[in-house]
């Protein structure tokens, strides 16, 4: 049974590597860039939705700074989603596309760092290993059911409404 914190950290590393792979093909044709971007865009959307479905509701129940961390995370997810939508709406390789990809990368990088220092540490400190493993099982099942991105909500959320709905 995997710990949800470890699963999230693993996905963060995977996201970092996928962005680095885009750097390696910067001058490639649009179809090559699209083939690299599409799985990353799906991963970003799926990861945010999984955190919102499983991780943050649990954090709101046990975390010490959970409301602040959750509000920040939902806002970050909205920024990431907005950038992904912008990238998906223009020609891969165009200046607009690269600007949107950079915005997604920066928002995601900031989010991961904040989450690793804050929310993940908060859950580790205030939920036991058994609880985190149970969340890890739910994360694994949710991720498998949505591996191709189908059924993943891709709309922005109101952070305050999210917190009220899960607190």
Automatic annotation (TrEMBL):
Pfam families xrefs: Hemerythrin
Domain of life: Bacteria
Domain Hemerythrin-like: from-to ranges: 6-119
Ranges of compositional bias, category Basic and acidic residues: 153-167
Start and end residues of each stretch annotated as Disordered: 146-167
The protein's name in its UniProt record: Hemerythrin-like domain-containing protein
Organism: Acidiferrimicrobium australe
Source species taxonomy: Bacteria, Bacillati, Actinomycetota, Acidimicrobiia, Acidimicrobiales
